Amino acid sequence: MKSLDQMTADDLRQARILLTDIDDTMTSEGQLEAEAYVALHRLKAAGFAVIPVTGRPAGWCDHIARMWPVDGVIGENGAFYFVYDRARKKMRQTFWTDDVSMRQNRARLDALGVDILTSVPGCALASDQPYRLADLAVDFCEDVPALPEADIERIVAKFEELGAVAKVSSIHVNGWFGNYDKLTMARRFLTNEYGLDPAASNAAVIYAGDSPNDAPMFGAFPLSVGVANVKDMLHRIEHHPAYVTHGHSGKGFAELAEHILAARQN
Description:
The structure is a single chain. The chain is an alpha/beta fold. It has 2 domains: 2-96 and 180-265, HAD superfamily/HAD-like (Rossmann fold); 99-176, Hypothetical Protein Ta0175, Chain: A, domain 2. It is 37% helix and 19% strand. It is built from 8 helices and 13 strands. Strands 1-13-12-11-2-3 form a 6-stranded parallel beta sheet. It has a 4-stranded antiparallel beta sheet with strand order 7-8-10-9. Helix 1 links the parallel strand 2 (17-20) and strand 3 (49-52). The longest helix is centred in the middle third of the chain and has 21 residues, at 99-119. It is globular, with a radius of gyration of 18 Å. The two termini are 24 Å apart.
């Protein structure tokens, strides 16, 4: 990984879209602090499209799409994206699969959740689970004492034994049934909303993240950036980001925003 300082103005000359994780990338210790939120507004004012790409639930994503200075949000690790049309006061929702499949998968995940909680003492369903549509989030350190690596692996194995996809974030193990992830829905979003095919998006898109579920995005986009705390998770990340900030979490996000805006001014 290169220092963010090595990302040049020439590298950024075509960049116009920032895709970004939320937890521990924009937030710091679970909070969206002023520095990061102001960075969002500054990027928006400079003409950048900003789209959070998160494992967080549909309920949160509805709020984020409406209330934050963003151009849409991809949620539950790629299960859907929401775009709020402010002029028409209408939310547009695009899901990876149909309603029937989602209901069937929900029942399978609910049963699996009972098994995981019984098999791995100390874990819990994420506090935001009631607001989820397509996945199961198992908390291993957000609102419970941090579990050891071996227990995280046991949770992942429980999902995979039943054919579910399991991805580890900085706080949860998220599991779902379906052949999607952050990258597949990001590609659909970029095509549907901006007319960008995968090749065209390489120079137009910057991605920021910090954890294993960001690996597909790190591998796909040359302008991928990890905030400094990504270094704590490199042993779990298949594809490392191309660049890394000096600052951790929200400070790193603000650092990235400042770097982008300075390059644009120059």
